[in-house]
Amino acid sequence: MPRLLLFLFIASISVAQITCMPGKTYVKITMKCASYCNEQGVEILDGSNSLYVNDIYINYQDSEVEVCIDSSSTGLYTLELSDSYGDGWSDNSYVTMVGKHGNVFFKNWMTDTSSSYNTPCTQTYSLSLLYAIDKDAEWKVKNNAQGDWKSTSYSDSDWNTETLGSATGSYVGTQYFRKQLTTTLEDLAAYELRMNYRYGVIVYISGKEVFRDNMPSGAVTADTFASSQYESVNYRGFIRPSFDIAQPGVLVIELHFVQGASADTVDFDAFMAAISSSVVDAKCFIYPYSMTLSGSSSSLYGATSMFDFDRTTSMSYHESEAVSVKFVANDAIYPYANGVRYYTNSVTNNIRSAVFSGSSDDASYSQYLSINEPSFAASSYNLFYGYWGIAPYKYLKLTITEKSDSSLYVLEFQPLICNVNAPDTIPFGSSSYTFYANLEEVLIAPTLFGISNCTISPELPAGVTLDAETCTISGVPTEETAEVQYTLSSHTASADISGTFTLSTPVCAGSVIQLLRTYKSTASSESFTIVNAETNEVLYEVTASSGQPDNQDWVTRICVNANRIGIDVSSFGRYWLTGSFLYVQVILSTGQTETLLRARYDSNLGLSTSYYASVNLP
């Protein structure tokens, strides 16, 4: 097999693409190699039948081979990436699988490792080389379509049947194209639709608009002119999640001309590629085409390192102000990037809060995805999703508003197209909340980004209000209430969803004690206990490894019916890091706080581990 593959590679150097015989499927396999490439392997299988195995790769040399493999009955295969030493592929080594029309079906690297080195390991993906619609296929074509021509139930029996690429009919004015979709992609990640056009297009799948280009916003008719045009006819398009075509349906495209330009022949064609996931354990496809990355600040360095399949390089930023990185699709294939994959190398120097947004013109951006994480695990990929207000955007922007430390390093940040459904309920950080009347400020916010136009039922306690635009509940309650279940509902053009939580606002008969922890990077090893000094009853306790957030200030309040409290501090280690403290504060009737104790654990310095404080202040 290696000799045959080498022959195919040499034979294909002088041509752009080999032509496969019936029963064979074309794929171009490009391997970008860095170091230890002789350990790296690529194999394509159909069931247990091996169809392709790479020749030995050479360090720092890119390899490209075009092959014709036996066609599978479904167009789906198994892609197996391997590493003979067991430590995964070296950074900046990745493989790309390209179909016969130049579209990318797969692009990623092998990140799995063995439990012990010098033990071979593999990483397996499903690989689709399927075209749900091929070039030069038969379509239904008409000009000046009438009726509900976008719907699946519409009868197009009186439309002409044309083979695109060689259509012979005459169609003056706006042209309409319909194509039945019989291939369902429910278990795949995405699809790529490319169209050969110059002027304006609007694309619908089973009646739902999924893309428009060079067209004004709002309703259009056959008399609506395209708002702009490209210099020439070429293939352009988008990648969207496969949930659009999870069921059989119809693809409908309307092609408009600019004023003063028209055609009476069909100079249009299209193809649709069905795409498997290129991410392990998620139905997501990493955007595979070239993007230009740039930072909004001259103090941000290495923006391009965020999306280069290389974890040895990174974007860095050391200022306190918010900063953004813009991603621009260089090819006219725009991603519906409803997901991102963020690689964190350590528990520090990470993004804590950020939003992801998109734009068609680089002027007005729509925010649709948020990252709000107090901490990340080291050496891990983290996935985040958005659900509403998304379109195939040319321009994407990551705006970082908070970082976990003074310095930020982003090694990999990849836009994804994901087959994920929007939630059907609104989630909250907790299912139940208690805030003390006349003392504590209520702050309850959904953890789901993108909802707005909210209402709540029943009526909130006096002093507490709902911001209908942000769906955030806030304010200091001025009355005592028992536990009540509330329903928060969001009403938008994209979805109507709701969620519930309970809220009580009791009056504290004793003293309200505020506990403030200024955690540093060893939070999980630190613990403390608050007890009633008179009865030794545990009033509050945070044990080690109970979800404490690294590098974050953490606050809670408790109602204490005791004259004195005892405080114990401890750690798995010999000390709490510098700056890591427990503050015990009493809330005064004015709403101000008075600190009773500041403590930290340090056995090296011989600091006390037990303290007492009086909570009944005059």
Describe this structure in words.
A 6-stranded antiparallel beta sheet has the order 11-10-12-17-14-15, with no helix packed on it. The chain has a 5-stranded mixed beta sheet with strand order 9-18-13-16-23, with no helix packed on it. It has 1 helix and 45 strands. The longest helix has 11 residues, at 2-12. Residues 1-16 have low confidence and may be disordered. The radius of gyration is 30 Å and the shape is globular. The protein is an all-beta fold.
Strand order across the largest sheet:
11-10-12-17-14-15
Number of strands: 45
Radius of gyration: 30 Å
Shape: globular
Low-confidence stretches: 1-16
Number of helices: 1
| Spatial gap, N to C terminus | 89 Å
Q: Give a quick account of the main beta sheet: strands, pairing sense, barrel closure.
A: 6 strands, antiparallel
Mean pLDDT level: 91
**Could you tell me the strand content as a percent range?**
35-45%
Which structural category do the helix and sheet elements fall into? mainly beta
Helix proportion range: under 10%
Short description:
The chain is mostly beta strands and about 625 residues long. The protein is globular.
Key traits:
618 residues; 2% helix; mainly beta; 1 helix; 6-stranded antiparallel sheet; globular; 5-stranded mixed sheet
